[in-house]
From TrEMBL:
It comes from Nocardioides dokdonensis FR1436. CDD domains: ATP-synt_Fo_c (cd18121). One of its GO terms (cellular component) is proton-transporting two-sector ATPase complex, proton-transporting domain. HAMAP family: ATP_synth_c_bact (MF_01396). The keyword Ion transport applies. Belongs to the ATPase C chain family. It comes from the Bacteria. InterPro entries: ATP_synth_F0_csu, ATP_synth_F0_csu_DDCD_BS, ATP_synth_F0_csu_sf, ATPase_proteolipid_c-like_dom, F/V-ATP_Csub_sf. This is ATP synthase subunit c.
Length: 67
């Protein structure tokens, strides 16, 4: 039962990064739809936010396997 509880905890922990990624790209799409000329400035910020949110999920799965 130890392993399944770790994976259950990881499954619950991925809700946060999943929501964050959705919100990041929703804001990016909204910003580009409002001002298409700002795409060059918004895209690197959106990709950086995606990478940081995804890093939380990767750290979470590493901890799920370690503990």
């Amino acid at each position: 039962m130890d392993g399944s509880l770790n994976m259950l905890g990881y499954g619950l922990a991925t809700v946060g990064p999943g929501l964050a990624i959705g919100l990041i790209f929703a804001a990016y799409i909204n910003g580009v739809a409002r001002q298409p000329e700002a795409q060059g400035r918004l895209q690197p910020i959106a990709i950086l936010g995606f990478a940081l949110a995804e890093a939380l999920a990767i750290i979470g799965i590493a901890l799920a396997f370690v503990i």
